[in-house]
Fold this sequence. Notes:
Layout: E1 3-8, H1 16-23, E2 31-34, H2 41-51, E3 56-61, E4 64-65, H3 68-78, E5 85-88, H4 99-114, E6 124-128, H5 146-157, E7 160-163, E8 170-171, H6 177-194, H7 213-237
Parallel strand pairs: 1-2, 1-3, 5-7
Antiparallel strand pairs: 3-6, 4-8, 5-6
Helix pairs in contact: 6-7
Amino acid sequence: xxxxxxxxxxxxxxxxxxxxxxxxxxxxxxxxxxxxxxxxxxxxxxxxxxxxxxxxxxxxxxxxxxxxxxxxxxxxxxxxxxxxxxxxxxxxxxxxxxxxxxxxxxxxxxxxxxxxxxxxxxxxxxxxxxxxxxxxxxxxxxxxxxxxxxxxxxxxxxxxxxxxxxxxxxxxxxxxxxxxxxxxxxxxxxxxxxxxxxxxxxxxxxxxxxxxxxxxxxxxxxxxxxxxxxxxxxxxxx
Length: 238
């Protein structure tokens, strides 16, 4: 099996550690870094996918890091699978991550486990034996909710989505309170437009740690503000 890693970033970043880890599992595997500022996040993934010829293509955001256990889990997971498959996972917390980052990763884990047909992907997912063209990625220019749009298109045009429990790369989602709130606003607008699964997030408050609860409340407020903004914009267009 060949494995390629597609990383999307806003600017060039070091990829040596990714290359060393990948070569432990596949000497032929490549790390493909896509930084083109003209492309939206999902378009960047499509550009990287077009350059890959591997059976298993793993997509990561620049703040996500895979460990040996994540590769091993994916290889074992795909060993008995037949046909094309989109594989979702969940985030784990790197050492030293602050409360806002832990809260966001907690939200992401809840979304991926509660989403219909596992359609929440986040910044880490994989394609197994997928048709090697970028048509499924084209036209998805969103900055928020773009992974779910891709997953919905995949289900309609290709097939299955499955959750791999052992695929839990580290997500360094440490942000300031302002950045955390702005991210929630974007997600609120996406949820109102075409992503109702994210509106179910508030129940995660009760399963979170005490230090994460204030951040989850901030997230709920940001989602609500984003939803109101979307409603005002929709009314002005109509």
